[in-house]
Write a structure and sequence with these properties.
The complex is a heterodimer. By secondary structure, chain A is α/β, with parallel strands linked by helices. Chain A has helices at residues 47-53, 79-83, 101-111, 117-130, 146-158, 176-191, 203-209, 227-232, 237-246, and strands at residues 7-18, 21-32, 36-40, 62-67, 70-71, 86-89, 164-168, 195-199, 212-217, 220-225. By secondary structure, chain B is an all-alpha fold. Classes of the chains: A alpha/beta, B mainly alpha.
Chain lengths: 247, 223
């Protein structure tokens, strides 16, 4: 990653409450182009909520979020236009059950008139090849394993040619033997320079692929740094405590 | 029994046709009402949800026979009293269709609401995260899945509505039950006549169920 790359995600003093529960208290964060930021922390710490605020699947309650200079908190912002550039991968895959794999990949590019059908099909097949699932183009989601579903989900997001990819615990719902194949795809993506924000419990991935690791707890960022800093010499006692439990 | 069939068979068959025509009109508009009200009940807008809830509860809370009398007699009466003209009259077919459409529409709305809610929210989120607008996501992703789970309940409702057309004999629509009453009055052969009428309903409904099974099988993904 280029240390001098410009910031593409800018979050300052972000707050998010659900009714009376304050999930994000005061989050400030910048992500540079091409950077891989891994967010770790105990469940309920607000990691997923933070991620979901970045494409406005959750409305923020306060603070500021800009994606490539576009203000997400501004009601006048066409959020759909922003989302076209911000891919998201979910814990439970969320492949469209009523469509086969190819149509899952083609839906958004064709429906949003990014590409005509033939181009979209070509692109989709190329993406499937990239995630190693060329033979599954005609399969329906229920015919795939968890790992295959998640790789299709990644390919689906990539078909929109996003500038940023958000991963919300992409391997948490997978059987252990399938985690590797998904992480492999993500690693490849990181190596070709995709800007990624990854919420995960895979510490090995955080260490190996992350440019920066963020530790969250109780709706706050408690510590951030390079993987070495966080994993080898964590400063915050809560970070140390958490890492002792998971490593 | 053969005498009834040979003498009144044609009449009863025509009446069955009227029953089916009434059911068809009713169901057609019921589907439209059900779709609109059902979707309104899952929208974010409070006003939409409130309207849907009031509509469904109102219609469900009134027996259909009362609704039928109200639409056929009550509404034209009110209209003509207020407007001071004798202009508005509803034919039994019009009033009956409206009545069925409202009644069945309310139940359909509930089926559609439940169907939409049965689709995992992740499906909508995934579609939105790709940049698809709400209504496109609804149309391309959520509704197709919802409709598939709704089909058995919808068919069930269709059958109930088809049978409910018999209630509309009270406003003088010449459907099967109304016609059968006349046949009984003319022949005094209640047992035979009602047995034939029952069998006619049964056959139509069995056919409908058959068609539903085929449709359900067709809609299975990836088969």
């Amino acid at each position: 990653m280029d240390r001098n790359a410009r910031s593409i995600i800018h979050v300052s003093h972000l707050k998010k409450s659900f009714k009376h529960l304050e999930v994000l208290k005061d989050i400030s964060l910048d992500v540079r182009e091409g950077e891989v930021v891994v967010i770790i922390g105990p469940s309920g710490s607000g990691k997923s909520t933070l991620l979901r605020c970045l494409n406005r699947l959750e409305e923020s309650s306060g603070g500021e979020i800009t994606i490539d200079g576009i203000d997400l908190t501004d009601k006048k912002t066409d959020i759909n236009k922003v989302r076209e550039r911000v891919g998201m991968v979910f814990q439970h895959f969320n492949l469209f059950n009523n469509m086969n794999v190819l149509r899952n990949l083609m839906l958004a590019p064709v429906d949003l008139k990014k590409q005509d059908k033939d181009t979209a099909r070509e692109e989709a097949l190329k993406m499937l090849a990239r995630v190693g699932l060329s033979d599954k183009a005609d399969a329906y989601p229920h015919q795939l394993s968890g790992g295959q579903k998640q790789r299709v989900a990644i390919a689906r997001a990539l078909c929109m040619r996003p500038d940023i990819m958000l991963f919300d615990e992409p391997t948490s719902a997978l059987d252990p033997e399938m985690v590797g194949e998904v992480l492999e795809v993500m690693k490849h993506l990181a190596h070709v320079g995709m800007t990624m924000v990854v919420v995960t419990h895979e510490m090995g991935f955080a260490r190996e692929v992350g440019d920066r690791v963020i530790f969250m707890d109780g709706g706050l960022i408690l510590e951030e740094g390079t993987p070495e800093e966080i994993f080898l010499s964590p400063k915050n006692p809560r970070t140390r405590d958490f890492l002792n439990k998971v490593l | 029994m053969t005498r009834i069939i040979s003498t009144y068979g044609r009449l009863l068959a025509t009446a069955m046709g009227q029953t089916l025509l009434l059911a068809l009109y009713g169901l057609f508009f019921a589907c439209i009402i059900g779709m609109i009200v059902g979707i309104m009940s899952v929208l974010r807008s409070r006003a939409c949800r409130a309207f849907a809830a009031v509509f469904v509860n109102l219609i469900r809370g009134v027996p259909m026979i009362v609704l039928a009398y109200f639409i056929f007699f009550g509404v034209p009466y009110l209209w003509n009293t207020i407007m001071g003209v004798g202009g508005l009259t509803l034919t039994a077919l019009q009033a009956g269709s409206i009545c069925l459409a409202l009644n069945c529409g309310a139940y359909m709305a509930e089926i559609i609401r439940a169907g939409i809610e049965s689709v995992d929210v992740g499906q909508m989120e995934a579609a939105r995260s790709l940049g698809l607008p709400y209504w496109r996501s609804m149309y391309r992703v959520v509704l197709p899945q919802a409709i598939r789970t709704m089909i058995p309940s919808i068919i069930n409702q269709f059958i109930i509505t088809l049978k409910d057309t018999s209630i509309l004999s009270v406003i003088g629509f010449p459907e099967l039950v109304n016609t059968a009453k006349n046949v009984v009055a003319a022949t005094f052969m209640s047992f035979q006549t009602w047995a034939i009428v029952g069998a006619m309903y049964l056959i139509v409904i069995l056919l409908l169920q058959r068609a539903a099974k085929v449709l359900e099988r067709r809609l299975k993904y990836g088969s």
